Amino acid sequence: MSKLDTHPSVLAVRQRPAAAAHRSLSLAELRALALEAGADDVSAVSLDHPELAEEKPHALAAMPSARSFIALVQRTLPSDIRSPKRSVANHEFHGTGRELDEIARRLAQELTARGHAAMNPPMAFPMEMSEFPGRTWIVSHKRVAVAAQLGRMGLHRNVIHPRLGSFVLLGTVLTSAEFEDEPPQLAFDPCVDCRLCVAACPVGAIEPDGGFRFSACYDHNYREFMSGFSDFVEQVVESDDKQDFRERVPLNETVSTWQSLAYGPNYKAAYCIAVCPAGEDVLGPFLSSRAGFLDDVVRPLTERVETVYAVRGSDAAAHVVKRFPHKRLRLVQSSLRPTDARAFFRALPLLFQRGPARGWTATFHFELTGEQAVRATVRIDDGTLQVDEGVLNGVPDLRVETEGTLWIDVVNRRRNPVLATLAGRLKLRGDRGLLERFSACFPR
Ligand code: B12
Ligand code: SF4
Known about the structure:
By secondary structure, this protein is of the alpha+beta class. The protein folds into three domains: 19-175, 3-Layer(aba) Sandwich (NADH Oxidase); 196-332, no CATH class; 341-440, Nonspecific Lipid-transfer Protein, Chain A. The chain contains 19 helices and 13 strands. The strands form four sheets. A five-stranded mixed beta sheet has the order 11-10-9-12-13. Strands 1-2-6-3 form a four-stranded antiparallel beta sheet, sandwiched between helices. The radius of gyration is 25 Å and the shape is globular. The termini are far apart. The model has no long low-confidence stretch (mean pLDDT 94). The structure holds cobalamin (B12) and iron/sulfur cluster (SF4). Iron/sulfur cluster (SF4) is lined by residues 154-156, 166, 191-197, 275-276, 278.
């Protein structure tokens, strides 16, 4: 008999009844456990669900034994999220977020106690920031919730729950458990197509055709998060003295940054969610009186006098001037900057501005060499963007040839492109004037 066979822990484990680990669960059993843990709604889908093919490798990288996603929904308080006093909305986002993380943790512990491995990736932060500016989140809760039939993606690109509407935060538990049944198909789209989210967003991030201007939302709403914070630090570093810093960063922004660090970062808007009337439990006031709904919910936010952050030359900056002249536009540096040549091409769709790209068409070939070698084709066509790997589409209007590292230095303004061209290290073939037009579509 080996020493292990006589170890007290080994003996205790062997005396236990056979673990339930290989027994699958029903969705009804899961519901009972999740409601007991405090969730407002729950469902589950297999890691093999076809809509979650992109999520599966990320889930397995976090938990190799995972077989299913459990999707959790937790309601937020509409009056808090809608308040023009945004500290109240932020308090609610953070409070519900913490509650949801606790519920996911309790559910994961309960499943573990029943013999199923389970883990609870955070509903938001902390994330894998070492991957930034790549994907930092472990699970896309929106995708999981939609595949699990807990709601549909609204025009504002958030999941709308059929009953609770947009006033929900989402969480996911990964588990080795498998489920006997599949959730029933959600029969309808809860979005009522009112387009109030389009009208309310201060930076015009929600496009009426379903497009989402990522950088507009990120540069304003996330001003005190992630790279918005890094901008703040750079202002500190670049300031000549105390006076210069005070001119660059007003005192209210400095104390707001302190507040974000001390109490959880403040979102600047989330108006797309705030004004959304969808969801059976929420829809009443909108149905009773549209005019009343506009007065009570939408106008207090759209008429709010506040600072709106946007990059010079961006569609967002133009939107603020045109739609919200009473708001204070503050021009800031883009908070997304590429760290390498591959990231540069990945980030292009996130940074693209339709305004400066309207009314002209051009194809660009990039032949970047060296340790950051990338070949890519970028086509701008009257307000649209297409980025492809490799050099395609025949003769380009402009061909850019240089080392990948040098290109990133040019993009991040560490090198002067004119001097690099004169030195023969940056080769431009074709219409050179197009380079300026190209840069205007990705303002920083
Ligand atoms: C990245 C992210 C963002 C990004 C991108 C938003 C987006 N539309 O995806 C930004 C910073 C802009 C953002 C803003 C907000 N978010 Co957010 N966010 C996330 C996160 C971490 C992942 C989103 C995701 O699944 N993307 C993948 C696919 C499905 O999204 P997509 O819309 O098809 O594609 C976009 C992104 O992939 C993005 N993208 C692509 N590559 C990269 C690379 C980087 C570095 C980044 C940052 C983004 C990015 O660009 C695409 C086009 O816009 C989740 C938390 C999580 N772990 O799931 C919360 C989450 C989606 N956010 C949420 C909320 C509430 C918000 C805000 C309201 C924040 C606030 N309180 O003000 C706003 C709403 C903006 C909006 N209208 O979408 C909730 C949504 C709840 C719901 N009912 O659906 C989530 C689920 C958090 C949670 N646990 O509840 N968010
Ligand atoms: S505000 Fe209106 S259009 Fe936008 S997501 Fe909600 S219901 Fe749909």
